[in-house]
Amino acid sequence: MHRARVVLQASSKIGNSERFASWLIKNPQAVAMTINANRLKSSTAAEPFLNGSSSAYVETMYNNWLTDPNSVHASWDAFFRNATNGAQPGVAYTPPPNLAPYAKNEVPLTSLIPASGGMPSIASGSPINEKIIDDHLAVQAIIRSYQSRGHLVANLDPLGITTGDPVSSGDWHGGLRAFANEAVIRQHVRFDEADMDRVFKLPSTTFIGEKEKALPLREILNRLEQAYCNNIGIEFMFINSLEQCNWIRQRMEPPNVTKMSNDQKRLILARLSRSAGFENFLAKKWSSEKRFGLEGCEILIPAMKQVIDTSTKLGVESIIMGMPHRGRLNVLANVCRKPLHQLFTQFAGLEAEDDGSGDVKYHLGTYIERLNRVTNKNIRLAVCANPSHLEAVDPVVQGKTRAEQFYRGDNEGKKVMSILLHGDAAFAGQGVVFETMHLSDLPAYTTHGTIHIVANNQIGFTTDPRHSRSSAYCTDVARVVNAPIFHVNSDNPEAVMHVCNVAAEWRATFHKDVVIDIVSYRRNGHNEVDEPMFTQPLMYQKIRKTKPVLEIYADRLIKEGVVTAEEVKDVKDKYEKICEDAYNQAKQETHIKYKDWLDSPWSGFFEGKDPLKMSPTGVVEETLVHIGKRFSSPPPNAAEFEIHKGLLRILKARMEMVEKRTVDWALAEAMAFGSLLKEGIHVRLSGEDVERGTFSHRHHVLHHQKVDKATYCALAHLYPDQAPYTVCNSSLSEYGVLGFEVGYSVTNPNALVLWEAQFGDFNNVAQCIIDQFISSGQAKWVRQSGIVLLQPHGMEGMGPEHSSARLERFLQMSADDPDYMPPESPDYEVRQLHDCNWIVANCSTPASLFHILRRQIALPFRKPLILMTPKSLLRHPECKSSFDEMAEGTTFKRVLPEEGPASENPDKVRKVAFCSGRVYYDLLKERRDRGLEKDIAIVRLEQISPFPYDQLKSEISKYPNAQLVWSQEEHKNMGSWSYVEPRFRTLLRNQKQISYNGRATAASPATGSKAAHNKELKNLLDEFCVL
Ligand SMILES: Cc1ncc(C[n+]2csc(CCOP(=O)(O)OP(=O)(O)O)c2C)c(N)n1
Ligand SMILES: [Mg+2]
């Protein structure tokens, strides 16, 4: 027992810092001093396995060992043996032998200890040498350091401006190849030259050894340099999955991973030659035209083709791309293989053969189906049309991709994928990139992995990265979704292709986003007529001295004997001839066709349809009853499915309405959706909290009160053969999510896609999507969308930010001419709808909602619908409709005429108030309260734009002796007034006037004071009653 205590006491002097890997401490002398000092201070508490509570156990073991050394574990045998032999504190402990088989890539440490040379052996019972442990740990730390930080010193910049150049950054250890910046990679770890030939075991987290389990230090460093600090810089160590990290290491670390066969090299050269040849040709023919050429990043084309080749090999059949201006024409020509003559006609300034106002050539989209010659598989490629607004197309592409996946039943994204291209400045600067990234893993929004490619020319217009971003890389945004980021030097085409292969495989394996950052430069100005030397003189001096990548690569392949100079010239000449022929063909064209640039053709949708014939929107009563009942019932297995008591009350109230043949807003919406679903129309409702509804009125998804994720959606279970219903709470993003839904809506015309703003106010965060895609999309790109924007709107005393959906803005962007009244015709409504850019409505009844939603699909074309929706009206007792207004034979009423006493004696009516939306109910009450029902007629515009001239005309003529007013609750410079006023003037032909009844002008959409709100309303109603 006493001996045991002595052993323990001796061991207890082991200090914590003794186990410190000394390489972590900068100054070795300081290390020695720390160790000595700690030895004196140390206690058993410092050595957890020898603390008080375990000492009794150790004592017992020690006594057993004394009797029979084999009775204890081998590690204790070694420990007691060393301790009793008088081993110094800290060296008595020997790690236990590894009982588990070594992993594929591991070798036992013991096998690496030199048998002689003064190093102590690690054989059982002998103390291990601390330096050996430290050195091995140091090597492991170095490996990890390369994996984490190697990218910081990789040679990524073809201009050598922004990243370190390891070769010129100084020698390391007497004539060895220059290694990466020590401070970054190895921090304070030092090895002597003598250590360089020592063999070190490789941890299982590296694949530099391939089949080797141990390598000399020199070779380890060499291989790490090659993998992490050469022309590829990888950021991946932040990924929270060991499997994924290992997957990347496996593809990036083994020596020679970027080596290509001669055939592959020739293919890269040929593609590069076309990419450069295309830009040269345009420069030659149209030297002063803006085309946002790719010069300096020509490798983008072979890179995209490589991503496509590898992805198609892995099963992808359809790729949807979004990209900005840079190199877009080249992508259309050489990636999509859009006929060159069609591209060249865009330069000719010809008139369009079809309708639309068109767009500049570097914004147009395209859609192509073709054979991929490398994989011999058919592939569909679409480049979405996009506005100038950088990155705005990102969510649109994602929505379109998601829709294609959905309609094909491609639930895992194996057949359809997206590629997004970015400029460096825009990728870092535009918030919608982040918003789009955040959709990438959400159940109803994921596209199962996007390949992002950044054409990083290290400049944005005239601003260099030092002034355009605070992050180290332009790609840092991708870290939030754990996407691996591959930075690659564009002057090394084979490295670029390798990275493209790995990215495509990553996407096919993990179905998560990945980024390829092609670090390149911009040989010309921002566009071809820009002078870059004004602002980037030094950069451009460097660029002038930099050889084009085609030349660099061709020289390299000639030197390697892969191609001859003649072959290089031949490829170049042949492509020039192709361009020349297309140029001559383009000269024959007399018109351009916008339809050639459509990114989402709806094959079969328009064919054989009368463009002015609308299907009925009324529905047989049996359908209304069926949907109503299902929507008012708990799940069929209600006994097990416990729903909230409050919801039971709501369902009961719904059922009572069905029994009374009436509907409120929520029920009418459900009936519109349900009847469309019955007809095979997919309905998708997306937005913040839409499942329940901001105002707790919708409740499309019922939640089991006891079981997580157990939900029930009645609308998804109406009929066995119905279309699918998607209702999905979105991320808290307007720009991203609305963009997504726009992309979704352009994919399949037989779907009703709706986006709901939490409050209408929030739509201005998505203004770019509204302006650039929804209101102008068809005019610019002949692309139709039937998207519906539901926008809670109304002055209800809730303050400036929850009142107005900015109705005036939508109306102001309506393209119908205020001075032109279309001639009357039987198909007036549908003609107007055909010609408008969108529909703006502020309905006042559930039946109007029902019909206007159904009309979206009943139309023989698609138009966006901007719908103001109610808040308090959701529960207003008078805001109800009867089944009679929705049944077969009924239609949407653009104008709801007066039907009360005033309409019975119209000659006596002294005032007609025209209005729209919820103010109707205030007017109605006021008129009733003041007994003016015979004197004032109220006419509602359920659809404001296109302006229902025809129906308003007959309403006006009905009341010859009445003065006309427009009543609105919004301020005078807001709401509908500025839209309706000139149109009424056109309608009235100056024979009569219409005056304004409503709030005064204001800067803020609504007052923050409830008292002021009430006063304003009172004024409005007082004025309404003045006769
Ligand atoms: C949202 C938005 N803001 C500003 C612009 C004006 N603009 C056009 S290109 C450009 C620079 C883009 O730089 P980068 O993203 O690096 O692409 P590059 O032109 O270098 O390829 C700017 C600021 C724009 N098109 N979109
Ligand atoms: Mg740039």
Automatic annotation (TrEMBL):
Entry EC no(s): 1.2.4.2
Family that this chain belongs to: Belongs to the alpha-ketoglutarate dehydrogenase family.
Positions of the Transketolase-like pyrimidine-binding domain: 663-876
Protein name per its UniProtKB record: 2-oxoglutarate dehydrogenase, mitochondrial
GO biological process: glycolytic process; tricarboxylic acid cycle
Main location: mitochondrion
Sample GO molecular function, one term: metal ion binding
Gene Ontology CC annotation, any one: mitochondrion
Stored NCBIfam families: 2oxo_dh_E1 (TIGR00239), PRK09404.1 (NF006914), PRK12270.1 (NF008907)
PANTHER family for this protein: 2-OXOADIPATE DEHYDROGENASE COMPLEX COMPONENT E1, 2-OXOGLUTARATE DEHYDROGENASE
Subcellular location: Mitochondrion
Function: The 2-oxoglutarate dehydrogenase complex catalyzes the overall conversion of 2-oxoglutarate to succinyl-CoA and CO(2). It contains multiple copies of three enzymatic components: 2-oxoglutarate dehydrogenase (E1), dihydrolipoamide succinyltransferase (E2) and lipoamide dehydrogenase (E3).
Source species: Leptosia nina
UniProt keywords, alphabetically: Glycolysis, Magnesium, Metal-binding, Mitochondrion, Oxidoreductase, Thiamine pyrophosphate, Transit peptide
Cofactor(s) essential for the protein: thiamine diphosphate; Mg(2+)
SUPFAM superfamilies linked to this entry: Thiamin diphosphate-binding fold (THDP-binding)
